[in-house]
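Residues determine shape. Next comes a sample protein:
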Amino acid sequence: MSYLLAASAEMLFTELPFIDRVRAIHERGLGVEIWDWTTKDLEALAGTGANFTSMTGYIEGDLLEADGIERFLETAEQSIVASRIIGADRLNVHGTGLDGNGQAIRQRQSVTAAERQTARSTLSRLAHLGEQHGVVFMLENLNLLVDHPGTPFGRAEDTIELASSIDNPHLQLNLDLYHAQIGEG
């Protein structure tokens, strides 16, 4: 099995314009990750020739609330369309939408067993959407202590359990070690 190392254009070379960040990462032989694609010139990014390994797979919504679930799935479909422009076939999702500062829009301190089942159902629908369109959605853990307090299903333990409960290869885990180390050691 081979691995492709990738770097976030959101986090590196921040002194450069975004497209130059992508180029700098690509020139070093790394794959490129981007976050909110709605703020990017996707056609220009595609023109860099970079290998986009992942991007945000939704814009709004969450896994638990009826209106949030529908918005989550709608914007996941929009993200699939956007992903085609840059050739990203892995789309990253979280337990809830995040604001411009990375804060959970709908914060929760805990989730019930019924809410866990609702999240499974939502993720199953998301996996089916990925299957239909040939993309993989990845559920990412986020640390709750420093960067993303109140994010439901933020802990690695939660994301591992949820992702492994969906029997579909179009939903996988994005185990973010930065977040796991801060939040869980």
Observations:
- The chain has a mean pLDDT of 94.
- The radius of gyration is 16 Å.
